[in-house]
Amino acid sequence: MEKHNDIKKELKGLEHIRLSNSEKQSIRNTLTEYISYKPVRSENINVTVSQRFWFVWMRRPMPVFAATLLFLVGGTTAVAAEGALPGDILYPIKVSVNEEVRAAFALSNEAKANWSIARAERRLEEATLLSADGRLTEETKQALDTHIEDYTNQAELFAQNTERTNGRFVALATRIEIALNARDRITRAVSEATMGGSGIAALEARSARSFDADAGVASEAALFTEPMMQMETASFAADEAIQATALSKSVPEVQEQNDAALAVERIRAQTQLTTLRDRLKSTHVFVERAQRRIAESSYERAREEIARMETLLNEGVDALAKKEFVNASMSFQNALQISLDIHDIVNSGVAPIQPPRKVEFETPASDVIPAPVHLPLEIAPVEIPKRPIF
Amino acid sequence: MALPSHDIERMFLQAYDEYADGIFRFCMVKVSDREKALDLMHDTFTRVWEYSVKGKEIDNWKPFLFKTAHNLIIDYYRKKKTVSLDKMEEETGFAPVDTTHTSAEVQAEYNIALRKLHQLDEQYRDPVLLRVVEGLSPKDIAETLGISENVVSVRIHRGIAKLREIANAQTQNKK
Asked: pTM of the prediction?
């Protein structure tokens, strides 16, 4: 490079072309943000087998081959078992191996509660798929129902030991509430299908049981949903409470309560949205699988109801974007309710007599945001009921 | 085994800190428009990051960045016809140096250097700039410009000879 020193001197002026400090920092910040939006994904990183592996392979081929085969077969079986349904050969592996391993990795009460409710949701999905195929026997139905009950009970017990004042408690409570509601409706729909009840008799039976259903959900959920109901009651009664306390409390205190109540409503709506998206997918699958064994009119009706679910989901998402959390929650809850009505439509083979139930809330005034209820934290020893898995 | 993602991020930002000015200067000399050069420099780094995201390794960041910038500049000129330096100066009062932070003396020095460089044919300009100002090796320049190392060496040699001629002619004129 020294030999070009004279030329370098001639072109020295070009070195003045540079970014200003502010430009350089500004672009750096933009790039840092860009990186965070587009991170290097681990699956994209090339993984090559190390030389050490080949060395061991060459020295001791058979043990390495056996270990590799065991790993591949075991892993493949575990993955394949995830799609198994009751009655399939791999189903015991799904329930007794895969799920138990995942349960062992759930260490905190919150993680345990989440996994328990997820297991209940998986059993519900299995009941739905078997029902769609017309493979749900009375025995399997009862076994699934028992397990759903166990897992929701477990989830409630674990959830009781989590911190109730944080948002995750609200999310858990919402998931349990949705699962219990679905369990009741799906079980009823399944009963009609398995008992051969269709047409007018089945519909009458369903109408008659609608009251029992509400009572049943209330009693089963009483242990855990009572605090949620208290929370809701408090939410809507907070109108008066805030008005009453507004005089004695300072503005920041009221504001703080309003913010906390808004946060509760937001988490509730977001949890419902997540569950609704999953439910929408599984309902699509349910209707398509059931198509060949139901009347054309029922299939068309079920498709229309799915379209209504999608509309309500979009409305709810719009409301969420506008921070109208109560309205969003109502839309999501109505859509979830419709998904259960679709089960009735498919399993009875005829359209329901009544239009889908709409959950009506008494919406609080927009300028008054309800206060959250801080529930007492009682640590109770958790005893998990043992039941044989099929 | 490829590098962990946080190492790739660190290397990328380090490359930005070290070579951002050089890439900007390269773009600036090629497009003679400060705003466009900033855009091209920014696009260069985002393109390189997108390449990294796909899990592809970059052994030598400097030539890779210059090569990406060079390709983006080619794309830019395919979309837009060339504008001469004089025309830019006349029409838009174009000021490639950050005029808010530099003296008139520095700007004058820069303009003289840029004029000398623009007297070279384009085929000599890039190799000379990359070799003399940015300090890339002939091998890296060859990779950047997509030509052979021998051709790069020849062009650098001829370009520098031409610049010396220009400098000598100017000195004799002054006398």
From this structure: 0.43
